[in-house]
Design brief:
With about 425 residues, the chain is α+β, with helices and mostly antiparallel strands. Helices cover about 35% and strands about 20% of the residues. The protein has a domain at about 30-250 and about 280-335: Kinesin motor domain (Kinesin), CATH 3.40.850.
Length: about 425
């Protein structure tokens, strides 16, 4: 890309830069072609049991919402409505396994001013982000998940949720999204011959994210609440970039160790070089953490503003995209969930009430190799920062009564989980 005004103004950006991407779509690309090339493979993977993330990134007024949601004219439907149409109306396109039944659940949330809100809720209360008892990731506590039986029903729900989303006008964009919107499509996959077995239920999820656009106040001329919103938007996007950079640096550190050793590497030899990934510095990255540490496949769509005045902003977007492109994930097929796989209460739970185990470690398999080179791999431990980490590592005394109560809580949680699975089976049969 070349700065059209580099001869007449001073810019902090190099006037000529070259970036490499997986694919470039010109402005006249049809929405149908764009969906087929970017999203359809992701939908197939999700229906086969993998988790998937797709997010649109770019400056304000660059077309992110149009990419995700689309327009009102024929043929202008975006990624989200086309995804729903394919899931419900085009099983031949996806080549679904006829031996399985699928149920679809929908949730809709937004991250606004570093708070998470449920757009399906009638009350404007913020939700918290909590650690999942069934897996090592995070989830939005209290977020409504509604079962949908048709694409039309799902679209109607999303249209209702969209009415609750924060959208205001600025000088740069008359319909500026002031929050990050996250639509999660959860798929329950049940084998037809094992409907009564809770262990046969396989869950996967696809999250489509319409990120709010980065802004510069000199262009948007915002003030008051709009200025505060812009500050939180820019902060969360900055943290997202920091997470991408840290993941990239950590993966390169492991790759260098692989190149030197030429054989499987013990993570203890390289973990000292790993940096802490600052997922907890922003609600956005905290919610999306699972996808970035290897438990799903991620697709990033970069929206570029074609106007000359957006050169500096577009250059920053390009640099971030080039950075994110170097980050590798290791998507895996989710195994059917059985009650027996729920984590049991850990010893010394009375101490666990006051502080979490730190640091949180997540493992990602990284492979290297190429023509004429030996293929090697290693397990990369990704560290999540714990804000409550202290220097005192002494264990607190164990309270047997408290531990007994925690055991009972875990038992009740397992029973609740089993009941929810049975309800899902009953609903799948009706």
């Amino acid at each position: 890309m070349n700065d059209p005004q580099s001869h007449s103004r001073v810019s902090s950006i190099n006037p000529s830069s070259v970036y490499t991407f997986s694919h470039i779509f010109p402005s006249d690309t049809q929405q149908s072609e764009f969906f087929t090339r970017t999203t359809l493979p992701l939908v197939r993977d999700v229906l086969e049991g993998q988790n998937g993330l797709l997010f649109a990134y770019g400056v304000t007024n660059s077309g992110k919402t149009y990419t995700i949601q689309g327009g009102n004219t024929p043929g202008s439907a975006g990624i989200l409505p086309r995804t729903l149409d394919v899931i419900f109306n085009n099983p031949t396109v996806l080549k679904l396994d006829r031996n399985h039944e699928y149920t679809v659940w929908l949730s809709y949330a937004e991250v606004y001013n570093e708070k998470v809100y449920d757009l399906f809720a009638s009350v404007d209360d913020c939700n918290s982000v909590a650690a999942s008892p069934a897996r090592a990731g995070k989830y939005i506590a209290g977020l409504r998940q509604i079962r949908v039986r048709s694409a039309a029903q799902a679209k109607a729900l999303l249209k209702l949720g969209q009415l609750h989303r924060r959208v205001f006008g600025t000088v740069a964009n008359s319909q500026s999204s002031r929050s990050h919107a996250l639509v999660t499509i959860k798929i329950l996959r049940v084998h037809r011959g094992e409907r009564t077995d809770p262990a046969s239920i396989q869950t996967s999820r696809l999250t489509l994210v319409d990120l709010a656009g980065s802004e510069r106040n000199k262009h948007t001329q915002t003030s008051g609440d709009r200025l505060r919103e812009a500050g939180n938007i820019n902060k969360s996007l900055m943290v997202l970039g920091q997470c991408m950079e840290t993941l990239r640096v950590n993966q390169r550190a492991v790759a260098r160790s692989l190149a030197v050793s030429g054989e499987r590497v013990d993570t203890r030899d390289v973990k000292k070089a790993l940096a802490i990934v600052p997922f907890r510095h922003s609600k956005l990255t905290e919610v999306l953490m699972d996808y970035f540490v290897g438990e799903g496949r991620a697709v990033m769509i970069v929206n570029v503003n074609p106007y000359d005045t957006g050169f500096d902003e577009n250059s920053h977007v390009m640099k971030f995209a080039a950075l994110a492109r170097d980050v590798r994930t290791n998507p895996v097929v989710n195994a059917p969930r059985a009650v027996a796989t729920l984590p049991k209460a850990k010893p010394n739970l009375s101490a666990a009430r006051y502080k979490e185990v730190v640091p949180h470690r997540r493992k990602v398999t990284i492979s290297t190799g190429g023509p004429g080179r030996k293929v090697s791999e290693a397990q990369l431990e990704v560290l999540e920062e714990d804000e409550e980490r202290g220097d005192d590592d002494d264990e607190e005394p164990v309270d047997p009564l408290v531990d007994t109560l925690f055991d009972e809580i875990e038992s009740l949680r397992a029973q609740l989980f089993q009941a929810e699975l049975q309800c899902a089976i009953v609903e799948a049969e009706t």
